[in-house]
Write a structure and sequence with these properties.
This protein is mostly helical. It contains 19 helices and no strands. Helix content is 79%, strand content 0%.
Length: 390
C-alpha cells in the first residue's frame, strides 16, 4: 500500500499542477491519476486501498460539508427563504426527470436504473463550488442579497436531497418494490438532521468556550462527531450529512472567530482528502466501456444540463435577484464532482444492471462539468455580480 500511496501522491500532484496551470480544476488531474494507476490501465493500486475506497470517499464528503457549514451565513439565506428552499431540490428534480426520459426512451434502460443514475448526476459539486463561493463572500461579491451564500447552501442541501433519493432508488433496485414509507421518511430525516445538528453545534460552542484546547483537537472532535452522525443515521432516521452541515453552521453563527480558524485547518485537510476522493473514483472506472457509452453519455450530460439550468431559473422567478444574478446562479450549478465520486461506484459494487455504465457516465460528468462550471464561475462573477456592502 505504501508504494500505491507514493505513486498517488507524486503522479496526482504532478497532473493536478499541470491542469491548474491551464486554468482547469486540479481534480481532473486526480481522476486521470486514478484511471492511469488503477486496475484497468497500469494496475499499480494496492487492493487494500481499493477495498476501503468507499469509506475514504465518505470521509472526503464529510470534510467538504464541514467546510461549507463553517462559511454558511444562515441569516442571509433566511432573507431569501423561498429561492433558497427551491434551489435545494428543484434543479435536481428537473435533472432527474431529464435523466429518466433520456435513459428510458433513448438508451432503453429500466426506470429504476435511470432514476439511480439521475440521482447520481443531479448533485452539484461542493468541491468546486464551496471554495469559489467562500472567495466571493470574502470579496463581497453579491453580498447585498447573499448570492454566494445561497448558491453554497443550495448546492450543499441539493447534495443531501439527491443522496437520500439515491438510497431510495438503491432500495427499490435491491428489493424490487417501492415502499412509500421510505419516501415519507425523507422530510423527517431532513428536519431531524437540522434539529440534531443545531443542538450539537450549540453544545460544541458552549464546550469550546468553557474548555480551552488547541484548534487541532477541536477539528478532530468535529470529525469524530461527523463520523458518528453518518454511522447512526439509519438507526435514528435522520440525515447525517445535513446534521454535519447544520452543526458546522451553528459554530459559524455562534462563534465566528473560531469558525474562521477551523476553516483554515479544514482547508489543509481537504488538500489530501480531495486527492484520495478523485483518484479512487478514477481507479474504479473501467475505460473499456467508453467506446460504447462515450457519445451516448455526452449526449445525456448535455441534455440534462438544459433541464438543470431551467430548474435554477424557475427557482429564481419572483425573487429580488436581478437577471445577471440569476444567470450567475445558473452557471454556479453546472459543476459536478464530489457526490459523483462518492456514490458513483456504488451501483457497480452492488452488482446492479448498468453499474459499469453508471460509473463511466458519472466520471464523464466530472470531467466535462467540473472544468466548465469552474471556468464559467471564475470568468463571469466580475461581470454578473457587484461588489456590495451587506
Amino acid at each position: 500500500m505504501l508504494l500505491s500511496l507514493a505513486l498517488v501522491l507524486l503522479v496526482g500532484l504532478m497532473l493536478a499542477a499541470l491542469f491548474k496551470k491551464i486554468r482547469m480544476p486540479s481534480l481532473i488531474g486526480f481522476v486521470l491519476t486514478g484511471i492511469i494507476l488503477g486496475p484497468y490501465v497500469l494496475n499499480q493500486m494496492d487492493d487494500q486501498l481499493l477495498l476501503i475506497s468507499q469509506d475514504l470517499r465518505t470521509m472526503a464528503l464529510i470534510i467538504i460539508l464541514i467546510r461549507a457549514g463553517l462559511s454558511l451565513d444562515t441569516q442571509k439565506i433566511r432573507s431569501q427563504g423561498r429561492i433558497a428552499m427551491l434551489l435545494t431540490f428543484l434543479p435536481a428534480t428537473f435533472e432527474i426527470v431529464g435523466t429518466l426520459l433520456f435513459t428510458r426512451f433513448v438508451m432503453g434502460w429500466a426506470w429504476v436504473d435511470g432514476f439511480i443514475l439521475g440521482t447520481i448526476l443531479a448533485a452539484v459539486s461542493p468541491a468546486v463550488i464551496v471554495p469559489r463561493m467562500i472567495h466571493l463572500i470574502e470579496k463581497k461579491y453579491g453580498a447585498k442579497r447573499g448570492i454566494p451564500d445561497m448558491v453554497m447552501a443550495g448546492a450543499s442541501a441539493d447534495d443531501i436531497v439527491v443522496i437520500l433519493l439515491f438510497t431510495i432508488g438503491v432500495s427499490i433496485k435491491q428489493t424490487g418494490s417501492f415502499d412509500l414509507s421510505n419516501l415519507l421518511l425523507v422530510p423527517v430525516e431532513i428536519v431531524l438532521g437540522v434539529i440534531y445538528g443545531i443542538l450539537i453545534g450549540k453544545g460544541l460552542v458552549y464546550f469550546f468556550k468553557k474548555f480551552h484546547m488547541r484548534d487541532t483537537v477541536k477539528v478532530l472532535i468535529i470529525i469524530g462527531l461527523a463520523l458518528l452522525f453518518i454511522t447512526l443515521e439509519k438507526q435514528l432516521y435522520y440525515s447525517g450529512l445535513l446534521c454535519i452541515i447544520a452543526m458546522a453552521s451553528m459554530i459559524y453563527q455562534d462563534y465566528p472567530i473560531l469558525s474562521m480558524r477551523l476553516l483554515k485547518k479544514y482547508e489543509k485537510i481537504w488538500v489530501f482528502t480531495e486527492m484520495l476522493l478523485f483518484v479512487l473514483v478514477g481507479a474504479a472506472m473501467d475505460i473499456s466501456v467508453l467506446p460504447t457509452i462515450g457519445l451516448m453519455g455526452i449526449g445525456l450530460i448535455g441534455f440534462i444540463l438544459v433541464f438543470r439550468l431551467f430548474g435554477v431559473w424557475v427557482s429564481a422567478i419572483h425573487s429580488n435577484a436581478n437577471t445577471k444574478e440569476r444567470i450567475f446562479m445558473m452557471v454556479s450549478y453546472i459543476p459536478k464532482a464530489t457526490v459523483q465520486a462518492s456514490i458513483g461506484a456504488i451501483p457497480l459494487a452492488l452488482g446492479f444492471t448498468h453499474g459499469t455504465e453508471i460509473l463511466a457516465i458519472a466520471v464523464m460528468a466530472i470531467i466535462l462539468n467540473a472544468p466548465l462550471g469552474a471556468f464559467l464561475i471564475d470568468w463571469t462573477h466580475t461581470s454578473l455580480l457587484k461588489i456590495e456592502n451587506e
